[in-house]
């Protein structure tokens, strides 16, 4: 039996190296370019299972420290996501500091691509919040270590529909656990963020005749999704107080926190956002206490990674969807493990992922 260390948040996070050692990252690269205004951080968390693959996020962070914290948490999440999904990939992620609508240019993305190139394949990038398949084309001009290229270029295209499908599968598994049936018909479901993934998820929920509530920063997008699928629009703050069966965080992370947890009235949380629990050690157990079934984020939002991984093997859309469908069964397995071991669902999923990494690391030195 492999011994797995409990993941704890350590306290010394005041220095950069303190933060990097907190989650035991292998490498963190700071990228700066005066001419293009590029400021980016690439986090390589763990490469035991394979090269670190994870998207590049472009976001207007309030501070460099916030950007570092985000890339460290996101890249660790990628390690777990790849491991639990049975992929031969490590965990990595990158952030570009800036406003994706204003600060992006071909030169900036290509300069960033050259930093990725310099890592010689230890990190493979892809798209994330604030980046598009077009940006991946620019990166591809500088390095082969990029995935999620447009289908016209032989790539797997936008991963969002596959991510939405996996999230839907995880949500149905959680519904089965909470309500005794995985049917979402008539269920009241709030979706926070109707961007790439959230939009596709709403489509799947509408097909199953769920009652859908949506919120987003962008009013035009809200109108579009509401008109198309008959979803009711609510304000960004109101989403936490709704009397719903399922809350689906599909925007950014850390929305399950000290300020929101007491307001939530749902029985299930299942969404595609990464790092939904602000602090898994605090908010994982708090959800158990409240009787809310939490579907682990990195498990149920793995569809996009599965899709991108398939591109590296020679893309096959059907097999990517078939593999993503298995998220349903994996999610039920995690609920069983959590119950058996008396732990919260996120921790059970982390332990399952760590177990695979530990066992594979042992065979790596043997020929
Ligand atoms: N795209 C993928 O395949 C994929 C895969 C795995 C995980 N994820 C995660 O899923 C989430 C959504 O990804 P996406 O690709 O759909 O991004 P996106 O940028 O297309 O959509 C996010 C949406 O959330 C909205 N938003 C941001 N803050 C909000 C807030 N406070 N309240 C309400 N809405 C808010 C944005 O306006 C945007 O429309 C992210 O956390 C991402 O990391 C995405």
From TrEMBL:
<dbReference type="GO" id="GO:0016491">
    <property type="term" value="F:oxidoreductase activity"/>
</dbReference>
<keyword id="KW-0520">NAD</keyword>
<dbReference type="Pfam" id="PF02812">
    <property type="entry name" value="ELFV_dehydrog_N"/>
</dbReference>
<dbReference type="InterPro" id="IPR016211">
    <property type="entry name" value="Glu/Phe/Leu/Val/Trp_DH_bac/arc"/>
</dbReference>
<comment type="similarity">
    <text>Belongs to the Glu/Leu/Phe/Val dehydrogenases family.</text>
</comment>
<dbReference type="Pfam" id="PF00208">
    <property type="entry name" value="ELFV_dehydrog"/>
</dbReference>
<dbReference type="InterPro" id="IPR036291">
    <property type="entry name" value="NAD(P)-bd_dom_sf"/>
</dbReference>
<dbReference type="InterPro" id="IPR046346">
    <property type="entry name" value="Aminoacid_DH-like_N_sf"/>
</dbReference>
<keyword id="KW-0560">Oxidoreductase</keyword>
<dbReference type="InterPro" id="IPR006095">
    <property type="entry name" value="Glu/Leu/Phe/Val/Trp_DH"/>
</dbReference>
<protein>
    <submittedName>
        <fullName>Glu/Leu/Phe/Val dehydrogenase</fullName>
        <ecNumber>1.4.1.-</ecNumber>
    </submittedName>
</protein>
<feature type="domain" description="Glutamate/phenylalanine/leucine/valine/L-tryptophan dehydrogenase C-terminal">
    <location>
        <begin position="157"/>
        <end position="365"/>
    </location>
</feature>
<dbReference type="InterPro" id="IPR006096">
    <property type="entry name" value="Glu/Leu/Phe/Val/Trp_DH_C"/>
</dbReference>
<dbReference type="InterPro" id="IPR006097">
    <property type="entry name" value="Glu/Leu/Phe/Val/Trp_DH_dimer"/>
</dbReference>
């Amino acid at each position: 039996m492999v011994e797995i260390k409990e993941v704890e948040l350590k306290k010394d996070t005041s220095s950069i190296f303190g933060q990097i050692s907190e989650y035991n990252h292998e490498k963190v690269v700071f990228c700066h370019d005066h001419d293009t205004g590029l400021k980016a951080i690439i986090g390589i968390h763990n490469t035991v299972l394979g090269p670190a693959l994870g998207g590049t996020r472009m976001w207007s962070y309030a501070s460099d420290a916030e950007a570092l914290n985000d890339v460290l948490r996101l890249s660790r999440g990628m390690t777990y996501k790849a491991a639990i999904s049975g992929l031969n990939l490590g965990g990595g992620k990158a952030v570009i500091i800036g406003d994706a609508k204003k600060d992006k240019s071909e030169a900036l993305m290509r300069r960033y691509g050259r930093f990725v190139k310099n890592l010689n394949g230890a990190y493979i990038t892809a798209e994330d919040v604030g980046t598009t398949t077009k940006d991946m084309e620019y990166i591809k001009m500088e390095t082969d270590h990029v995935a999620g290229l447009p289908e016209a270029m032989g790539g797997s295209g936008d991963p969002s529909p596959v991510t939405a499908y996996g999230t839907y599968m995880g949500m149905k598994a959680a519904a089965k656990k909470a309500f005794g049936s995985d049917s979402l018909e008539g269920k009241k479901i709030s979706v926070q963020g109707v961007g790439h993934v959230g939009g596709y998820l709403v489509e799947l929920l509408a097909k199953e005749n769920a009652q859908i509530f949506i919120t987003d920063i962008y009013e035009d997008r809200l109108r579009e999704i509401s008109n198309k699928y008959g979803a009711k629009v609510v304000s960004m703050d109101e989403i936490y107080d709704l009397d719903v069966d399922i809350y689906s965080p599909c925007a950014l992370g850390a929305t399950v926190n000290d300020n929101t947890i007491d307001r939530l009235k749902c029985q299930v949380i299942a969404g595609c956002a990464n790092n939904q629990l602000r602090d898994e050690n605090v908010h994982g157990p708090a959800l158990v206490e409240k009787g809310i079934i939490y579907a682990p984020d990195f498990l149920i939002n793995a569809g996009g990674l599965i899709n991108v991984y398939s591109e590296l093997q020679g893309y096959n859309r059907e097999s990517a969807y078939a593999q993503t469908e298995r998220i349903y069964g994996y999610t039920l397995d995690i609920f069983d493990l959590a119950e058996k071991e008396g732990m919260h669902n996120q921790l059970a999923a982390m332990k399952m992922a760590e177990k695979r990494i530990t066992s594979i690391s042992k065979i790596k030195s043997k020929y």
